[in-house]
Amino acid sequence: MRADARDNRARIMAAADNVFGRSPGASTDDVAKLAGVGIATVFRHFPTKTDLLEAVLTLRLERIRDRALELAGSADPGTAFFEFFTQVVSESASKLAIAEALSAAGAAAGEEAREAGRGMREAFGGLLAAAQKAGAVRADAQFPEVYALLIGASRGATAAELDPETRDRMLALVFDGLKTLS
Amino acid sequence: MRADARDNRARIMAAADNVFGRSPGASTDDVAKLAGVGIATVFRHFPTKTDLLEAVLTLRLERIRDRALELAGSADPGTAFFEFFTQVVSESASKLAIAEALSAAGAAAGEEAREAGRGMREAFGGLLAAAQKAGAVRADAQFPEVYALLIGASRGATAAELDPETRDRMLALVFDGLKTLS
């Protein structure tokens, strides 16, 4: 791909992330406008709206996974775990909006997005294990229920349209339940 | 309404609760079959699928609210609060399926369902206040974040398709975060 085509593609994806993250019912035209390119350019890179949504969702999941992998080397595994948990919940509203737009377009997440989702899940498991080893998270909590809590806190924050303060107080309750009992 | 019409209506609603609670994409015909009535009888009571879904969702929410009001008189407010929380989360998969079917039918919950939802929310607030007064739930937890946790645990359990054991372990983590720190 030529450099200007790569630039266009990146600009379109950033615009799509923004537009669909705020309103799942937005159109490809809205994306083209925000990206400052013609609609034909969008369709050249992403033949269907589903292709575009899938690419944006995959990018989101890959970024979350990369953040988890980055935090995995932290000298303070407890802080790393709770920071990652907080970040996933904070960003969940726009991520869920993109997933909803994909579902409304009649498509399930494709192989790329699912692969990125698996990578994210695995990296989260690594952060949990390290935080438990460091004594920051109780040792009796198993991955499936902690992961369900992450999903639940994300969906709860989104469904209840929590302001950031209430969301942080909800997370404080969740984190107290996860911390090692002293 | 004559007694046999009342019986039919109750039978149709029980069948709809069952059918749509398991698969949101089910048809009114599936409901008629399970209820053992003709499709014309279903449409006489509920002119549209939306009417039927709305009635079933309202009934669900009213039952949950009534359960909360019943528990409100308990001599052990801590147990009452945690029992109610557990029950709401356990039943959430089928309740969300009905809400999803309503949304797929292009309708938002109408006034009756919203009124029942408000009643449920209020009754939950009463259980929380009583449990806090009894010292079973920490006094610094406020209603908005505790309610968000209830919604979140419900959605997390449903989205992650948790088996009952994992769901109970997830709830144990949530409850430890809610209990009074000693």
UniProtKB/TrEMBL annotation, chains A, B:
Start-end of DNA-binding region: 27-46
Pfam families found in the cross-reference section: TetR_C_43, TetR_N
Keyword rRNA-binding: no
Keywords: DNA-binding, Transcription, Transcription regulation
Keyword NAD: no
InterPro entries named in the record: Homeodomain-like_sf (IPR009057), HTH-type_TetR-like_transc_reg (IPR050109), HTH_TetR (IPR001647), Tet_transcr_reg_TetR-rel_C_sf (IPR036271), TetR_SbtR-like_C (IPR049445)
Domain HTH tetR-type: 6-64
GO MF annotation, one: DNA-binding transcription factor activity
Protein name: AcrR family transcriptional regulator
Native source organism of the sequence: Kribbella shirazensis
